[in-house]
Amino acid sequence: MKKVRVTVEKASDGNFWCRTEEEINDTFLTSEGATVEEAKKDLLDCYEEARLDAEEEGKEFKKVEFEYKYDLQSFFNYFSFLNINEIARRAGVNPSLMRQYKGGFKNAGEKTYERLSKCINDIKRELQAAYF
Predict the structure, then answer these.
(1) 3-state class of 96 per DSSP?
(2) What does each of the 132 residues of the chain score in pLDDT, given as a tens digit?
(3) CA distance 130 to 62
(4) C-alpha 22: how far from its chain's center?
(5) N or C: which end of the chain has fewer CB within 10 A?
(6) In what helix (H) or strand (E) does residue 92 lie, and over which residues does it extend?
(7) How far is C-alpha 89 from the chain's CA centre?
(8) Predicted structure pTM score
């Protein structure tokens, strides 16, 4: 199954947007919602509608698996159960500044994004290694 990357970001109107970074059957998909969860559901609905349209036209429709690439605001909206202060501590970022990034009041620089990305990847590896 082909993997398609989806960019998830918070727009200036406060909504969250999802957009495919490549075409699926000659179409880019976009969606929106008040939360990331709503935007992702809307994307899946768009995908299903496109599949049904292709089916009605007798066209083959590629099955895909979505991979999501988040900006900081959308990441913490979707993974709201994560403790932002602990992630800031682990990444070596000031917790107050981190909350400003989350709220969209400030933008993180490239080095900060790299530290946060490494921190999240470390957490992901730790979770994948854990079991009950």
Answers:
(1) helix
(2) 899 999 999 999 999 999 999 999 888 999 999 999 999 999 999 999 999 999 999 998 889 999 999 999 999 999 999 999 999 999 999 999 999 998 889 989 999 999 999 999 999 999 899 888
(3) 34
(4) 15
(5) C
(6) none
(7) 22
(8) 0.85
DSSP strand E in 11-124: where? Answer: 16-20, 30-33, 64-70
Neighbour count for residue 50 (Cβ, 10 Å)? 16
Task: List the beta strands (DSSP E) in 11-121.
Answer: 16-20, 30-33, 64-70
| Strand 2-10, strand 16-20: pairing | antiparallel
Cβ neighbors of 35 (< 8 A, separation 6 or more) are 16, 77, 78
Q: Are 16 and 35 in contact (CB under 8 A)?
A: yes
